[in-house]
Write a structure and sequence with these properties.
Blueprint: H1 3-12, H2 17-32, H3 37-52, E1 55-59, E2 66-70, H4 71-84, H5 95-108
Antiparallel strand pairs: 1-2
Helix pairs in contact: 1-2
């Protein structure tokens, strides 16, 4: 099920945007709660294997797929990419400060439904 496409299709019809989103989320939660026990166990087993073997699951560079890599290999590939593109470290940049600014902008926006 493609939730994003389904939501976009539903929102194109006339009606209250907030009510449509709320109904959509309620319906999705009901469908998600009905996952068979065998599927749930499989997901838990996969998560355990990923954790036990220090793996990372990430989107592939090309195509609509994911890859599973050892965390150390993933870090090495990131460093190689950054070095090959002459990236430098910025000691003044802070993700937490940026996150705070973005949250403040969202909460202060009159264009975002709350």
């Amino acid at each position: 099920m493609n939730l994003t496409a389904d939501l976009a299709t539903r929102l194109k019809s006339n009606g209250n945007l907030v009510d449509q989103c709320a109904d959509f989320v309620r319906n999705c939660n009901q469908k998600i709660d009905v996952i068979p026990d065998s599927t749930s166990k499989t997901i838990k087993d996969i998560r355990k294997e990923i954790k036990d073997h220090d793996l990372i699951v990430t989107k592939a560079d090309k195509g609509n797929s994911v890859v599973i890599l050892k965390r150390s290999d993933y870090r090495q590939k990131i460093l190689e990419f950054l070095n090959s593109n002459n990236a430098t470290q910025c000691d003044t940049f802070s993700f937490s400060k940026l996150n705070d600014k973005v949250r403040a902008a969202i909460h202060g926006s009159k264009y975002i439904c709350k």
